[in-house]
Give the backbone structure.
Amino acid sequence: MCKTTIHSNRLGLYLPLILGVLYMSGCAINLPTPRHPQASLIKPSRLLAANFTKEDQHSFPVNVPNSVSSAAVEKQATEQALVEPLQTRSELEQWSLEHNSEIQRLGLVFEAATAKTRYVDSLPDPKIGANFFGRPIETATGSQRGSISLSQMIPWVETLDAKQQVATLQALAAKADYRSARLQILSQVRVGWFRLYLIEQQFVVTKNNQQTLQSLIDVANSLIAADRGSSRDVLLGTLELTKLEERLTRLKQQRTSQIASLNRLMNRSLDAKIVSPEKITLSIPGQSQADLVKIALQSQPEIQAARLRSQAKKWGVTVAQLSRRPDVTVMASYFVTDDNRAPNPSLKVGEDPWFFGLQVSIPIWDKKYNALEAEAKHVYDASTLSIETLTDRTATMIVQLLAEIGRADETAILYKDTIIPQAQQTLATDQSAYAKGEVEFDRLIRDFRSLLTLQLGYHQAITDRAIAVAELQRVVGESTPLLD
């Protein structure tokens, strides 16, 4: 009797062989390829927050029953924080670290790069195929109805190792980008907070000077009542008072805009409430310029990311060089054959033939591989130059920021201890002289404008110093807290 399908006993004989080949070819070689020394630092971004300093940690206390789930607690805390105004800089910083969309995006980029390290050194998937002959191939042992084939490409272990090194270094660079984004957002929040302080202090100073100017106008009115003054003085003072009103209106608009900018960084509603700061407390860095540069070169995430990517580019050169090696593919085929031939003692009629084979690619296109290697080397050389550029820029910024901190600090002290008291004394003296008719009202207005400018300049110097310190902290790195 002729067979047109595989007998069950024959299928039972070859099925374990087929499944065994499938299993072995589908399993990656996974030899213990060396990992980058810092590979153990790769972990999901949601766990990174535990590694940051206490300055970045702040909790929003919420009293809820124990039966409420953690998700409900988090949602309630979020809603409560959206309703209640943020009052301190640490609250703004913590909220931005938890909700800023750029930080979240880079956290996902890091997790994607981490996931890549778990598969990049695996074997490619095996391929299985089946052929069914519309017209059977007639052989002396029977008609071949079809075939089943299986193949597996076996890459070089050195190539897998090099790709693994590249992926690991890129994941570590993504982690450095994540930390750099945290520093950048923290710096922007602090700078925004300090500018909000400046607007608030300018508003207070302007309000106080409104009262001072009103007292000068009252003196002018009293002199007019005593036939010793001029209505021009009152008009001049009223005009100056109108300018202060315009300044207050402009400051209110700036405050609204600054609060909206801070809320955008924290991914909150733009009109969410933020309490304006009344004072700035900070410490001037005690390290020398050389020490700060040394710290920055070791801990600055941007520099770390550039170095890691440069190392990855160097391994990319190795990958390009190894691409010249031929690819090896192992194959196995099984042919389904009918026993539709007459019995023959010298032939095994109906036996299903099979074979194992080997294929090797022939990398003969030297021009292509030379170009691949040249490209990788140029990319690596460019990355090394970028490190030098970034290092020089960082050192230059530290020098400039230290100079700005020193200038702003000296200016603030000079304003507070010398210039403003002298301006106040001058105004008081001229005010007394005006009441006696010894000076003109124009001189009082000049004194008033000078005092107002100096008072605004004092708070500007304090803000400039705080902003420079915040920028210096970002440039140096998160491991050196300069703000309290």
Q: What stands out?
A: The radius of gyration is 38 Å. The mean pLDDT is 82.
